[in-house]
């Protein structure tokens, strides 16, 4: 019986080659900055959402904008988790700080939460490239306490970077923070409006007394006196 013996040195070399060949993939998350903790427990009630993110952004890999406008997925860089959820967290933390309120909820809201303002946000572009700046294109709509549309705006923000993936993510994080800054400026006046007065139910008009029905008996015409003083002429 022949026993195959592999020298320990060969196993060591193979293991070392495997370690050298494996390169961990860098993961990136958006930076929410250094927002402070809101101090008002009874601040304005704000409902964020629904927040819609473009379909092409819902993937793990970072997308790189090319000079011709096309998008190419990065080979080595990935998002650490869901980019959509990461965007929601940055927006929530920045809004709570800038509006100084802890009464902030992400749609759909729980039962009983009555917002002073609701923010409907749609992000249609959020990308960059080695030679292309970071660009954020979005639209927001603001609804007041009555659910009426009070503001609607299309925006396009741009931020330069150094070209590498880490600085691209930094630039994109800056764009989100700039977006929240503009949002907070638009939302703040709506949070200071007085509560709408409840409509007082109108009292029903007093009932008009019904008129007595006239008798349905036929009326007998009164007899008129016959004139007897008519002169008669005879010929």
Automatic annotation (TrEMBL):
ABC-type transport auxiliary lipoprotein component domain segment(s): 37-184
Coiled coil: none
Protein name per the record: ABC-type transport auxiliary lipoprotein component domain-containing protein
SUPFAM superfamilies recorded: XCC0632-like
Disordered: annotated segments: 192-235
